[in-house]
Amino acid sequence: MKPVRLSLLVLLSLLAIPAAAGAAPGGSDDAQRAVAGEVLVGFRDGASAAERDRAAGRAQANSRDRVSRSDDSLELLKLKAGRKNSDAIDAVAQDPAVAYAEPNWRVSALATSNDPYFTNGSLWGMGAGFGSQASTAWQNNHTGSRSVFVGVIDDGIQFTHPDLDANVWTNAQDPANGRDDDGNGYVDDVHGYDFANNDASVYDGGKRGNLDDHGTHVSGTIAGEGGNATGVAGVNWAASLISGKFLGRSGGTTAAAIAAVDYLTALKTRQGLNLVATNNSWGGGGYSQGLYDAINRANAANILFIAAAGNAGTNNDTTASYPANYELPNVISVAAIDRNGALASFSQYGAKTVDLGAPGVGVWSTTALNGYSSYNGTSMATPHVAGAAALYASTRPGVTAAQIKTAILSSVVPTPSLSGKTVTGGRLNVSGF
Fold first, then answer.
1. pLDDT at 111
2. What is d(CA 331, CA 240) in angstroms, rounded to the nearest whole number?
3. Of 27, 61, 393, 416, which residue is least crowded by CB atoms under 10 Å?
C-alpha cells in the first residue's frame, strides 16, 4: 500500500506567561484548543520533590509525568475528574516553586495539496470560490480516514491507478483463491464485485477495451490520494473505496443495480465495515419498487445514497428522474454548477427534489489506464458530495446517515443560480467539516 505523503506545516504559537502564571488567554478549558484535564507545569531550578508534590496537590492532580528526558523541570499534571484547567492553573500560579503553568495545547499540522492538478488550478472544484472548499478542510488537517468506506456503484475502478491504489478496499476475508471465503455469496470479491459480468473483475480497462473510465473518475473525486505530488487530490486524501460495478459498455440494469446496493449494504451489516455512503452517478428508466426497497435497506443500515440529478436540463419536480427522485431519507440528489457558480446548462434541478449543487463542469480526475481526464456532468458533482460525507464521518465515529445529511445540507453556501432550483438554494461547502 502506497503511503500518503503530506506536505506539513506545523504552527506553534507560544504565549508569554508571567513567572507566576495565570490562566492563558483564549479559554484554557476549550476542548478544541487544549486537552481537558491536563496542565503543563514548569518548575524553577532547584525545586524539591516536596515542593513539586505541593504544587500537584494544589492543582488537584491525580498523576504527574515528566514530559521530556532533556528537561526534568517540566511535568504534565493530569487532573482529577471534573477539575478545570483554568482552576488548576490559578491554584498553582502563586506557588514559589512554579516558573509557569499553562494548558496542554492542541497543535495541528496544516496540510496543503502538492498535487499538480491542484497546484496549477485545474481542480477548481476542490478550492475556494465556487468550489467545494475542500482545500480549506485540508488546511485544518482534515483529509479523511481509511476507516471510512464509500461504495462506488458505477462501472469499475482501476484499483492499480497510482492516485487510487492506496484507497481502494482489499477484502482480507476473501483473498483471490477461487473460494467464497467470507460466505457472502461472491467468490473472490477482493475489491468489490462486477454485477454487469457476474465476476470479481471490477476493472476491465486492460482486458475489454478502455472501460471503467467513469467509475475511476468519480473515485478520484471522492478519494484521490492527496499530498503525494501526483495527479489529483480527492475531497478525501484517504478513504476506502469499494466497487459495486454494474455498468458495462451498453449500460446496466435495475436488477444489477439492486444487487450492487444490497452487496454493499451486506458488507456493512455482515462484516461491520464503516460504510457511510454510496455514490450513484447514473440514472434512467422509470420507478422501480425493487430498487426503492434496496435503497431503503441501505437506509436502515445508515448508508447514504448520493445520486446525480441528471443531465437533461429538466425539472425533476415535474418529470421524475431515478434514482435521484426516490423519496427516502438517505437519498441526496445533486445538481451541477460551473466554476462561476452558474447552474450547468445540462443539469437537472428541482426546488423540491434536488438538494444542492456541487462542481460538475470541467472536473479533472483519475481515469482508466493510469490516466486523467476532464469530464462534465451531474456525475461529476455527485462524488464531491459523497466525498464530503466520508470527510465528515472521518472525525465523528458512530455518526448516523441522518446526521451526515443534515450537516451537508445545513452548511451550504447560498448561491443565486440555485435559488428556487434546489431544496437548499446552495452549493456544497465542506470548509467546516
1. 45
2. 21
3. 416
Distance, in Å, from the CA atom of 274 to the CA atom of 149, rounded to the nearest integer, reads: 6
For 6-15, 159-168, 241-250, 424-433, which range has the lowest pLDDT when averaged over its residues? 6-15
Tell me which H or E stretch contains 289.
helix 289-300
CA distances from 235 to 16, 82, 113, 289, 385 (A): 38, 38, 11, 33, 9
Assess whether the previous peptide bond of 323 is cis (omega < 30° from 0): yes
List the one residue out of 260, 284, 302 whose CA is nearest residue 398.
Answer: 302
| Cβ-based burial of 72 (10 A; exposed 0-12, middle 13-18, buried ≥19) | exposed
CB atoms within 10 A of CB 25: 8
Q: List CB contacts of 236: < 8 A, sequence separation 6 or more.
A: 143, 144, 145, 148, 167, 222, 223, 226, 387, 390, 391, 394
Q: Give the domains, in start order, of the chain with CATH numbers.
A: 17-107 (3.30.70.80), 110-427 (3.40.50.200)
Which among 363, 366, 347 has a CA at the least distance from the CA of 355?
Answer: 347
Q: Of 421, 365, 409, which is closest to residue 124 (Cα–Cα)?
A: 365
Length of the chain in terms of residues written: 433
Pairing of strands 426-427, 413-414: antiparallel
pLDDT digits (tens, 9 = 90+) for 158-173: 999 999 999 999 999 9
Task: List pLDDT tens digits, range 54-69.
Answer: 999 999 999 998 867 5
- Cell triple for 206: 486492460
Task: Report the distance separating Cα 231 and Cα 224, nearest Å.
Answer: 9
CA-closest candidate to residue 247, choices 216, 277, 288, 293: 216
Cα–Cα distance for residue pair 279/356, rounded to 1 Å:
15
Average pLDDT value over all residues in the chain: 88
What does each C-alpha distance from 401 to 306, 328, 413 come to in angstroms?
A: 11, 12, 21
What 3-state class would DSSP assign to 235? coil
Q: State the average pLDDT over residues 137-142.
A: 93
Question: What residue type is 276 in one-letter code?
Answer: V
DSSP three-state, residue 290: helix
Active site residues: 154, 214, 379
Element (H, E) at 78: strand 71-79
Average pLDDT of the residues in 127-141: 95
